[in-house]
Known about the structure:
Blueprint: H1 6-15, E1 20-25, H2 30-41, H3 43-52, E2 54-59, E3 67-69, E4 72-74, E5 76-79, E6 82-85, H4 86-91, E7 102-106, E8 112-117, H5 122-133
Parallel strand pairs: 1-2
Antiparallel strand pairs: 1-7, 3-4, 5-6, 7-8
Helix pairs in contact: 3-5
Amino acid sequence: MKTGTFSELENFEKQNQKPIIIHLYTDWCSVCKIESFQLKKDKDLIKMINENFYLINFETEKAKEKINFQGKEFNYLPNGNSGIHELALALSRNKNQPVYPLWIILDKNQNLVYYHEGEFKPKKMKEKLDEITNL
């Protein structure tokens, strides 16, 4: 599955506007690991994402670089031995602690079209992405 970064997004958007999938996860999240394994097995879903979307996998507790997104600057917030990125908090509806995994789908104009907390089963994801590509 092709993935990009927030810093690449601006250049990519100038060349080829597509809807954006932002996948927020952590390395300690067991549901995230199970979901990732299921998604990687689904060749049709991978093809659909690669052809029609720009995917950003965002590890919210490891990404420490400054990120500019939608005209705002976001930084990593350290907290003892760990921390969280401000962007994860900004994107999440639960401002204290995001629910993982978190899937946010934006249209090609970066407007929110879908928000999904918790496991996103491949079948349901395909249905939702198909709906979005046909908007």
